[in-house]
Each structure stands twice: as structure tokens, then as C-alpha cells.
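Example 5.3 — Lipoprotein
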Amino acid sequence: MRTQTLAFLTLSGLTLAACAQKQEVAMAPPPPPGAVAGSVAADRDGDGMIDGYYSADGIYHPNYVPPPPAPPPLPTRRGERG
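Solution (predicted C-alpha cells):
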């Protein structure tokens, strides 16, 4: 009796496994430009933008954003008036 039960369960499991649909595993997207291999992105202020990254040794490296250029000088009040 026990062998019949085990045989039935094994056969039913194999039958159901053959009908199962296999899902394709999606690959991770490629890293963004400027990413460092082996690092973890960090969003320190919670605004959704990456502020820097943590390297493999645990040190935080902020992303350097150069300051915007100075505005052009105002036109002088001298000269031709129109």
C-alpha cells in the first residue's frame, strides 16, 4: 500500500512538473555611465538621485558636480545710447 502511494505521488508530481511553464529570468540592466565596478550607489538625502557611491572597502565617494559657470558681466552704462 505504501509503495503504491509513493509511486502515485511521484508520478503525479512528474506529470504536473512537465506542464509547468518556465519563466525567463530577466537580466539586470547595464550600469549607468560613470559607474565604478564593485561599488554600491548611495542616495544620502533621499531625493531619488544618486549622490555618490560606496566602494568595496566601505568608503563613501561623493559624485563631484562642478559649480555652474559665473554669469556673464552686466553691460556697462557707458557707451552709445540708443
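Remark. The beta strands are 40-42, 52-54, 60-62.
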